[in-house]
Amino acid sequence: xxxxxxxxxxxxxxxxxxxxxxxxxxxxxxxxxxxxxxxxxxxxxxxxxxxxxxxxxxxxxxxxxxxxxxxxxxxxxxxxxxxxxxxxxxxxxxxxxxxxxxxxxxxxxxxxxxxxxxxxxxxxxxxxxxxxxxxxxxxxx
Amino acid sequence: xxxxxxxxxxxxxxxxxxxxxxxxxxxxxxxxxxxxxxxxxxxxxxxxxxxxxxxxxxxxxxxxxxxxxxxxxxxxxxxxxxxxxxxxxxxxxxxxxxxxxxxxxxxxxxxxxxxxxxxxxxxxxxxxxxxxxxxxxxxx
Lengths: 141, 140
Known about the structure:
Shape of chain B: elongated
Low-confidence stretches of chain B: none
CATH architecture of chain A: Roll
Helix content of chain A: 25-40%
Number of strands of chain B: 5
CATH superfamily of chain A: Hotdog Thioesterase
Strand order of the largest sheet of chain B: 1-3-4-5-2
Distance between the termini of chain B: 18 Å
Mean pLDDT of chain B: 93
CATH superfamily of chain B: Hotdog Thioesterase
Structural class of chain B: alpha+beta
Number of domains of chain B: 1
CATH topology of chain A: Thiol Ester Dehydrase, Chain A
Largest interface: A-B, 45 and 39 residues
Helix content of chain B: 10-25%
Order of helices and strands of chain A: EHHHHEEEE
Oligomer: heterodimer
Shape of chain A: elongated
Number of helices of chain B: 3
Largest sheet of chain B: 5 strands, antiparallel
Low-confidence stretches of chain A: none
Distance between the termini of chain A: 13 Å
């Protein structure tokens, strides 16, 4: 962890990570989340996804949330793992082979229940620059 | 014959079926293959033991809900609308925990039906580990 938390200020950008989500990732994630049941076929079957109006299979939104959480661990370490909060909306689908890019910016520094807390605006974009997930997170420092 | 579960039959306040899990090291590693690894979570973590990435909580989000409303699980087209988490204590490799919860909201927005439930993850001593709020767009 190289971030000097004492120097963080409002407007600072968070580290960014990106991932291209493959069908293998979607299948593996679905196996973890659904215990191997594969009940929501928009994630696994292209024909079903198209029947529901999607151009391809849809990645689970929480894959993006997982990447956002990893950025917060990189940024705050223990202050994220123990005391972190996140709230996100999944506003556009992430399709198979889309790239998710996580971005964030410090929005506020203050105190919350006797601990110093940092709030960030976070979002994920796809490879076209469209926002797919928007939200906020906070952790202690 | 099992009564068909529909949006109308889900009630705010419905308690969800508790589910018990053991967080295996294998599951943590499978999850890390998807979102990446970080030595911060290793046995050299600030906690002195191997912990899981906190967002692994997503792998246990739906089990209590679909144990309560099994018919809804079999329908495709469901979409995750919003998600909130509070990470109170880290999950550790090999840990046993329980998810409990209840439905806290249901609404129709732009012709689509949504439900929201709260979920609490607790260890075997009853200590809260994670709090979650899950919003899903249902299809029937």
